User: Fold this.
Amino acid sequence: MKRKKILFALGFLAQVTLSLNLAFANPAYLDTPALPCATTSEGEITPRANVTGYQYMEIDGILYKRLWSYTYARWEDPYWYPA
Assistant:
């Protein structure tokens, strides 16, 4: 029973560690500054369009792309797709 708990804990830690590594696998967005909030002279906030762009990654000679939101700093596509 104790061995199962240890193996479960190690598996959980491995999963968390791998997921963090995948989240930061593409450092291209780090050079992109966050967009400031646009205001008018009266101090009202004006809406802006979502700024997005594709990030590319090559695995075993195959080029993949994924949509990145520069506005919200998050992935818009759930998976990498062949380009």
